[in-house]
Amino acid sequence: MIALISLIFMIIVLDGVVSAAEAALFTVPPARAKFLSETSHAGKSLLALKESMGGPISVLVALSNLITIAGSVFSGIMAARVFGEEWVGLFAACLTFLIMVFAEIMPKRVGERYAEQVSLMAALPLGFTVKMFTPIIRAVERVTGPITPYKKVSTSEEEISFLAKLGAKEGSIENYEGELIQRIFKLNNINAADMMTPRPLVFFLDGNRTLGESHDLIHQSKYSRIPVYDKKPDRVVGVAHVKDLLAALLQQKSGMLIREFAQPPLVVPEDKLGDELLREFRRTKQSLAVVVDDHGRVVGVVGVEDILGELVGEVLEEKEISPELIKRVSKNEVVAHGETQVSTLNNFFNIDIPDHRTINGYLLKKFGRLPAAKDVAEVGNLKFIVEEVSPSAIERVRVVKGE
């Protein structure tokens, strides 16, 4: 009787250890295993197991089956001697229940709950066992390979984005961190044309003019970098830094040509993807690029800050919005002053609203009244959302372009 109880106990313990190790091995993320490999020898062994899961799983499944089958056979023989053959069926049912609960369900939960600790404890002995049975494992894989080929599991963008949303919802990460992760993936879905400042809104300097002749224009500029052209804007010869121009003016070098201060421009096609453009900025150590179309015509400029705006969003202060300026919030969303010309909006979105008035005048006609904040007007695939109104005019509008 004591021998039978001892055998049952041994079956449950051994099978439980195997079940816990299997669950832990599946639960530990590959990235975490890679981190642990840099801190301990057991971590290195764990990473090796995670990188080739076919061998460890084959060994664990084989051990589990060997323990339960062999244990059941021997314990059944012993039970027949102790209780008689008529009780073997009931004994088998009880043993199955014990194995299922105490050697499968509970150990697997422990393995999942303490995955890191259990997998590190099991990594070295399991790694040794895998090496010992490598010839058998390879023979089995040759037989089963054509039927069930091993495919390395990779994590998709959709999964990472979903995990970011889930993490933010559950509080594992901050909301802004989850949003930032999702925005990063959007960079490979938008291109330079989506982020650029259109050519009609770009401030250029004529490279053939002198500093003295361009003095007023330089001082009026709101930008730190200015594209420089030769004879016409389609022939951009470089980008000049305003600080260099101002320094030269202070040094009484007003006779120098603007083009002498221009650095070779970074020229990119309008379909250049956002993530590729960011890598290009890093490679060239430049922060402004000239965007051209298929015919080599300049269609706008795009800067590092435009990419950062896509990643973190833009903080728009009231004082930043002026009739001469449109602020891009995202690929299809801008904020504009009410006095901004509709033609400027046309250039920005590459659309054609046949109106020569300001956005304020255009929307007053559409609404037929002075709208209130949050009122919405839809024109084609454009949505105009009124954000700020004075007693007599629309001051600030958010414009969203539909896909």
UniProtKB/TrEMBL annotation:
InterPro entries the UniProt entry points to: CBS_dom, CBS_dom_sf, CNNM, FAD-bd_PCMH-like_sf, FAD-bd_PCMH_sub2, Ion_transp-like_CBS, Transptr-assoc_dom
Gene Ontology MF term list: flavin adenine dinucleotide binding
GO cellular component, one term: plasma membrane
Cross-referenced CDD domains: CBS_pair_CorC_HlyC_assoc
TM stretches of this protein: 57-80, 87-106
Listed PANTHER family: HEMOLYSIN-RELATED (PTHR22777), UPF0053 PROTEIN SLL1254 (PTHR22777:SF4)
Name under which the protein is recorded: Hemolysin
Taxonomic source organism: Candidatus Liptonbacteria bacterium RIFCSPLOWO2_01_FULL_52_25
